[in-house]
Amino acid sequence: MKRIAMIASGGDAVGINAAILMLIQHKGLSALAFHGGYDGIVEQSFFELSEREVRSVLASGNNLLRSARSRLAWNAEGRQAIRQRLRELEVDVLVVFGGGGSLKAARLLDEEGMPTLVLPMTIDNDIGATDYTLGHASALSVVTQALDQLHGTAHNMPGRIYMLEVFGADAGHIALSGALAGGAHAVILPECPLDTHWLTARLRDCIGQPFGYAVVVCAEGYPLENAYVAGTQGVSITLGKTLESSLGVPVRHTILGYCQRAATPSVQDRLAATALGQLALEAILADRHGLLFGFQGTAMAIDLRQVATSKRELDPQLVVAARNLNMIN
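The structure assignment produced for this chain is given below.
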């Protein structure tokens, strides 16, 4: 019987419970789970999960693997401690749920002798090797619901600009998709330099007839004077002060924040996790490792050594759609 270890690493994102189910239900596998990401392997005790327990939380935003950002995985001594602990537990394969940084650490561990597999987990959807990452659609459901509600209050109290700041780090996938799905009048993206004169004119038109108000989505990573710093929020407030001064109308801010991470897992995320979990199961049983499971048109295995470190670019069709709707300059 093969033994696997499972961790979630980096920023949390929902949907992974469906992939965990695919792994733990197989009678030919023994699965050890760790909280705390890579560091948890060394610093915490493992636990085991039953199929009944996993099935009971498929619809929950509470992941069965608690995530954390790692210290140990970024130096040779730390990775040695991780490998040593897994060898002591007679683990054959390490399965990692995580984003870009976690992927790089997994590749190093695999190259250094610990067979490792990765399932992409980040709401930012910014890993260049895959079209989709687990958690993205669920986060978008929170963004679009917030926009629906902002349109309601804006209809009731017109003559204002309503700004919604969303996650995404230095990538604009959440902002762009959310703005399109939620009917925003403008969207501010890290990838698109902002023409403030255009934005002022656009919002002035919206506040006039027929809308009477304007809803703007702002990515947290839009650079102002300095480059984006991870964990920094509030760029919409700075931009809003400029708009308020230029237009002479009130600007109201909503920073959506961490509620984007733990949404109810969407159907898309549950099915995507199931598909990737099945691929991971097949790889484990076939003694294959050093793989990222992602989507390039369809679900597939990608060699970790060939995974590009560049970020995924914005969908060009969505960018064109946003321009046609006069949402970006």
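Interim note for the steering committee: The chain has a mean pLDDT of 94. The longest strand covers residues 2-9.
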